[in-house]
Amino acid sequence: MFGIPLTLHYLFHYVMKIGFGSGIQTKIGVFVWYSAHLALSLSPSMKLLGNIIWLVFGGIEIALEYVIGSLAMMITIIGIPFGLQSLKLGMLALWPFGSRVVKKPTSGCLNTLMNIIWFFVGGVWIWLTHLFFGVLLYITILGIPFGKQHFKMAHLALTPFGRVPHRQ
Predict the structure, then answer these.
(1) Distance between CA atoms of 65 and 126, rounded to whole angstroms?
(2) How many CB atoms lie within 10 A of CB 106?
(3) Distance between CA 161 and CA 158 in Å, rounded?
(4) Which listed residue, 24, 27, 66, 142, has the most CB atoms within 10 A of its CB?
(5) How confident is the model at residue 75 (pLDDT cuts 50, 70, 90)?
(6) Which residues of 49-85 are buried (b: 16+ CB within 10 A; e: fewer)?
(7) What is the DSSP code (8-state) at residue 159?
């Protein structure tokens, strides 16, 4: 209820900042991007809609890939911590809008060692995949919120030990 007037207020001030000399297509593009960005960052119903669209257009597949990879890693005792981190990525991939990645205050040298192993074993490939899709989605205005979610997952995919997804 309070999100829409606040969004329109910020949107009006932002559009006024870009000036009148930059062309109507640029202003419309900025208007659409900024309104989508603010709506997804303020409204719980827009986060729900973003998550549903995410699930329909690839979120379920990404989450299933992480879960299958996690089960494969958990076959050995040594792979269990890496499988748990892959499950963490799968949970974030299932419902990314409305969650953020926070660093645990108790992360120590063991987490650093595990992140180094994770980086060389497969984390860099997962990171590059999310980076590629994030850049690809940022090309279109409507894909920007979804590209932002890929960048969030890329951050977690690079160093998952010592970080947890947190619902807002």
Answers:
(1) 11
(2) 7
(3) 9
(4) 66
(5) very high
(6) ebbeebbeeebeebbebbbebbeebbeeeebebbbeb
(7) S
Q: Which residues pair with 74 in a beta bridge?
A: none
Question: How many C-beta atoms surround the C-beta of residue 18 within 10 A?
Answer: 13
* Distance in angstroms (rounded) separating the CA atoms of residues 24 and 2: 29
CA proximity to 168, closest of 92, 71, 67: 92
- Residue 40 confidence (pLDDT): 52
pTM of the model: 0.66
SS3 101: strand
User: Coil, strand or helix: which one is 86?
Assistant: helix
Say what angle helices 80-94 and 144-158 make with each other, to 10 degrees.
170
CA dihedral (47, 48, 51, 57) in degrees, to 10, reads: -120
Q: What is the pLDDT of residue 85?
A: 85
